[in-house]
TrEMBL record:
SUPFAM superfamilies referenced in this protein's UniProt entry, alphabetically: Nucleotide-diphospho-sugar transferases (SSF53448), RmlC-like cupins (SSF51182)
Keywords: GTP-binding, Isomerase, Nucleotide-binding, Nucleotidyltransferase, Transferase
Protein name (Swiss-Prot/TrEMBL): mannose-1-phosphate guanylyltransferase
Family: Belongs to the mannose-6-phosphate isomerase type 2 family.
Keyword Nucleotide-binding tagged: yes
InterPro entries listed in its UniProt record: GMPP_N, Man1P_GuaTrfase/Man6P_Isoase, Man6P_isomerase-2_C, ManC/GMP-like_b-helix, Mannose-6P_isomerase_type2, NTP_transferase_dom, Nucleotide-diphossugar_trans, RmlC-like_jellyroll
Length: 484
């Protein structure tokens, strides 16, 4: 959110609850965005991540306790990113399996309705960008007014160019008594290039932002009307939810029985309550590297760069390096992205096709398609430095006050060298303090645990040796983070 700008509660007396959906993988922004750490967790446009910007935007525009719906694997990443920006009261709701947006929104609506069925949900994806917060505040005020009268409201963005990556909404007649809100004439699927060029010639056609503003009771009645199985399964999952540390875990069996369907197909395209509020507030779902190039400040030659980058004679390029130095010479309209385990080069006109390349990598069994070399855990992270036949070297960072599970391995031994901080190591019946520049050996089968008792991050180098070094060779005996 830009400095010195904020949203405000849009209608006196309205309870607006931000609902943030954080389930996407953002494969079109590969290799930065991957399933293990997708785009909403990256600071792509500011020093805050997209998730952080979204939650703060939602809290500024609402007065209810925010709800974040996410998958189990990302729960600790989300909790830590919210803590970093001072958000400590969010309800983090865990989906046991991905079932698209309709079940996720239904779960949030059921939780909200337990306290206030008339509360208005402001549903948004965790990975979108907003450039004009003041214009958004005006649109939100109109949307809440329409939602309070029983409409299912979405924001329609006025197109700035033909766009094949978005669905479209055609606005219909104005809603009587609510200036700036319209009935929806029809929803239009993502078009091809020719169809997109034709659509933008008609000012009734708007980009579908995927954001919704609706009363909890309204969306629940419409889900029950059009998708009764979704309503029944998710109701059972919410009723059977459990508390897991600071998380609300939906009942697994019931949620998995729910159909996999988006809120657009389940409700928005079928209901006679659909409404749209047109807006021009610089919205983007950052669905491609070309979209990110458009949003990023550029040099005099139209280049947008991030990281350790040198250019010579390049024009209108997006170049990002999160690893080694990247040099680009004498080219135009290219996207070049460098991470520590992958390099992606594409023409800006083919930015949407990155997703197809990720599919090819996945089909080939390449781990780089879905997983970063750096793997985040609730206690910190680890990353592989060198891997060979029967050995692997990792860097492990443990945050202050955190500890790994008590565990053992059947196929590998480990040698730990502390390079920063102080460790307390459990090795069978022993507890040993290991200081900087000291090491400890953990033989195959030893029950062990690593803990950081200090006030600075603990960094160590781990050398694994053995016939099998997979992460599934971990037998957890006791774990503070409730992992299986």
């Amino acid at each position: 959110m830009p400095k010195n700008q904020s949203l405000h509660a849009p209608v006196t007396g309205s309870v607006v609850v931000p609902v943030i959906l954080s389930g996407g993988s953002g494969s079109r922004l590969w290799p930065v965005s991957r399933k293990s750490f997708p785009k909403q967790f990256w600071p792509l446009l500011s020093d805050r991540t997209l998730l952080q910007e979204t939650v703060l935007r939602g809290m500024a525009g609402g007065v209810g306790r925010p709800i974040v719906v996410c998958n189990t694997e990302h729960r600790f990443i989300i909790a830590e990113q919210l803590r970093e920006v001072g958000v400590t009261d969010a309800r983090i709701v865990l989906e046991p399996a991905g079932r698209n947006s309709a079940p996720a929104i239904t779960a949030a609506a059921l939780l909200i309705a337990e306290e206030n069925p008339d509360a208005i949900m402001w549903v948004m994806a965790a990975d979108a960008a907003i450039q004009d917060e003041a214009a958004l505040a005006q649109a939100l005020t109109i949307a809440v007014q329409a939602a309070a009268t029983g409409h299912v409201v979405t924001f329609g963005m006025k197109p700035t160019k033909p766009e094949t990556g978005y669905g479209y909404i055609q606005r219909g007649a104005a809603i009587e008594g609510i200036e700036g809100a319209y009935h929806v004439a029809q929803f239009l699927e993502k078009p091809d290039a020719d169809r997109a060029a034709a659509l933008v010639q008609d000012d009734r056609n708007l980009w579908n932002s995927g954001m919704f503003v609706v009363q909890a009771s309204t969306i629940l009645s419409e889900v029950a009307r059009f998708e009764p199985t979704v309503h029944a399964c998710v109701s059972e999952a919410v009723a059977g939810r459990s508390t897991d540390m600071d998380f609300e875990r939906l009942a697994e069996d019931a949620f998995k029985r729910s159909p996999d369907i988006s809120i657009d197909y389940a409700v928005a395209e079928r209901t006679d309550l659909a409404a749209v509020v047109p807006g021009s507030f610089g919205w983007s779902d950052i669905g491609s590297w070309d979209a990110l190039w458009e949003l990023t400040p550029k040099d005099a030659d139209g280049n947008a760069v991030s990281g350790d980058v040198f250019l010579d004679g390049a024009r209108n390029c997006y170049v990002r390096s999160d690893s080694s130095v990247a040099t680009v010479t004498g080219v135009e309209d290219l996207i070049v992205v460098v991470t520590n385990d992958a390099v992606m080069v594409a023409h800006r006109d083919r930015a949407q096709d990155v997703k197809a390349m990720v599919a090819r990598l996945t089909a080939a069994g390449r781990p780089e398609a879905v997983r970063h070399n750096r793997i985040y855990r609730p206690w910190g992270f680890y990353e592989s430095l060198i891997q060979g036949d029967r050995f692997q070297v990792k860097r492990i960072v443990v945050e202050p006050g955190q500890k790994l599970s008590l565990q053992k391995h059947f196929h590998r031994a480990e040698h730990w060298v502390v390079v920063e901080g102080t460790a307390i190591v459990t090795r069978d019946a022993e507890q040993i303090m290991v200081r900087e520049n000291e090491s400890i050996y953990l033989p195959l089968g030893a029950v062990h645990r690593l803990e950081n008792p200090g006030r600075i991050p603990l960094t160590l180098i781990e050398v694994q040796s053995g016939p099998y070094l997979g992460e599934d060779d971990i037998v957890r005996i006791q774990d503070d983070y409730a992992r299986n």
